[in-house]
TrEMBL record:
Lineage, opening ranks: Bacteria, Bacillati, Bacillota, Bacilli, Lactobacillales
InterPro entries per the UniProt record, alphabetical: FAD/NAD-bd_sf, FAD/NAD-binding_dom, FAD/NAD-linked_Rdtase_dimer_sf, Pyr_nuc-diS_OxRdtase, Pyr_nucl-diS_OxRdtase_dimer
Positions of NAD(+) binding: G172, A173, G174, Y175, I176, S177, L178, E179, G258
Pfam family, one: Pyr_redox_dim
Gene (name only): gor_2
The protein's name in its UniProt record: Glutathione reductase
């Protein structure tokens, strides 16, 4: 048995690492974590936590808007104070996560890690060896390959803006584009969204997506679809986005055209790990083609959504594998997804489109008809529930102000395929969104 520095060495410190590394080290394994940036990776520092903090005032303004006449007066978002509050929320997270790792004797190795061989990673000229190595390097924002691309900004820049530009142009049709368009518009910016195709949020149920877009348009967001960006140029203190068929003059450009896996400059070619532009290729044990090298989180090329909960599940699975609890392949549960627009759109399990192909039953509910949604005067709200031929709930998608919590409430029924008698055994607190969601079944 070789004498390695670590039983398991992780490259990257995000959710694909720390959710599993901490309990693994607590069970006596010698663990090291290499990180070149902030401990915790994207989600705590420049993703989920920051985004939801910036969005909280948006949800509040929407509620106040609907309740006018019961409460009087309108709210205005102070962007500078909002960004400052965001920073207050997230600034302690790296130390907190690092502290949890150090409390179980995980070595945190600061620097950029590059493979020397299958068991060795070089960090600033120093060799670190391990029996098993996990690549958990995540993703970074994609950049358009066009003239003037450096004039555009990425999602991290948006969340760090201390002053909101009066006019923002967003390129892209995914989560980041629609969420940040919602936030910027609610905070008073004039927003234009430019997309390559004719649809946004393509992986979500399009009849609900169209309601999101219609609401944003009613609030002044412009959409330019079915075009291609040709270049960005500077015009004094402003910028021009040129696209086929026209141009937009703006104060600030956000490139939200996707994210790419961090597979470059870590020595994958040197050790022969297989990867593509979609990420690192792994088997059903999260092993690469080099059997002691694994991958976890968004850097993997996979069908499952590249989301924080997926990374947490993978990291926890690897913990059980390295601890000797299991030799079974990873068995992914149903993984929910949500877009934090206002209203939200969320989904889990079998989609409406797939339900029709499989001959499953669907049930639609118009949520503003429900008394609980009338409490806060919800105007936009629908869900579609999917049942298999044994009447198990196997899928759900919803658009509403509380869609994320409603879908979370339905997860046990979908994940464990509870039959009607088992569903009756779950007694929810009342009146709550969970009770309302269960009532819709």
């Amino acid at each position: 048995m070789a004498n390695y520095d670590y039983d398991v060495l992780y490259i990257g410190s995000g959710h694909g690492t720390f959710d599993g590394a901490i309990p693994l080290a607590a069970r006596g394994k010698k663990v090291g974590v290499i990180e070149s940036g902030l401990i915790g990776g994207t989600c705590p520092n420049r993703g989920c936590n920051a985004k939801i903090t910036l969005d909280a005032p948006v949800a509040l303004t929407r509620l106040t808007e609907k309740m006018q006449g019961i409460v009087n007066g309108s709210l205005v978002i102070n962007w500078t104070a909002n960004e400052k509050h965001k920073q207050e929320v997230i600034e302690g997270l790296p130390d907190m996560i690092g502290g949890l790792m150090k409390s179980v004797n995980i070595d945190i190795i600061n620097g950029h890690g590059t493979f020397q061989d299958a068991h060795t990673v070089m960090v600033d000229g120093k060799a670190k060896t391990a029996e098993n190595i996990v690549i958990s390097t995540g993703q970074h924002p994609h950049r358009l390959d066009i003239p003037g691309t450096k004039l555009a900004h990425v999602s991290t820049d948006f969340m760090n803006l201390t002053h909101l530009p009066a006019n923002i142009t967003i390129i892209g049709a995914g989560y980041i584009s629609l969420e940040f368009a919602t936030i910027a518009n609610a905070a008073g910016a004039k927003v234009t969204v430019i997309t390559h195709g004719d649809k946004v949020l393509r992986k979500f149920y399009q009849p609900y997506v169209k309601q999101i877009v219609a609401d944003l348009k009613s609030r002044g967001v412009d959409f330019v679809n079915n075009t291609e960006i040709t270049d960005f140029e500077q015009d004094g203190h402003s910028f021009i986005v040129n696209y086929k068929g026209g141009q937009v003059k703006t104060n600030w450009i956000l490139d939200a055209t996707g994210r790419e896996p961090n597979v470059d400059d870590i020595g994958l070619d040197k050790v022969g790990v297989s990867y593509s532009q979609k990420g690192i290729q792994v088997n059903d044990h999260l092993q690469t083609n080099v059997d002691n090298i694994y991958a976890s989180g968004d850097v993997i090329d996979k069908e499952q959504p590249k989301l924080t909960p997926t990374a947490i599940f993978e990291s926890t699975y690897l913990m059980h594998t390295f601890a000797g609890d299991t030799t079974a392949p990873i068995d992914y549960p149903t993984i929910p997804a949500v877009v934090f627009t206002s209203p939200r759109i969320a989904k889990v399990g079998v989609s409406v489109e797939d339900a029709k192909e499989q001959g499953f039953t669907t049930k639609e509910n118009h949520l503003p008809n429900d008394w609980y949604r009338q409490v806060t005067k919800e105007k936009i709200g629908d869900n579609t529930l999917v049942y298999d031929k044994q009447n198990h709930l196997v899928g759900a998608t919803e658009i509403s102000d509380q869609a994320e919590d409603a879908i979370n409430a339905l997860l046990p029924a979908i994940t464990f395929k509870l039959d009607p008698a088992q569903r009756e055994r779950l007694v929810t607190l009342f009146p709550t969104i969970a009770a309302d969601a269960w009532g819709s079944i």
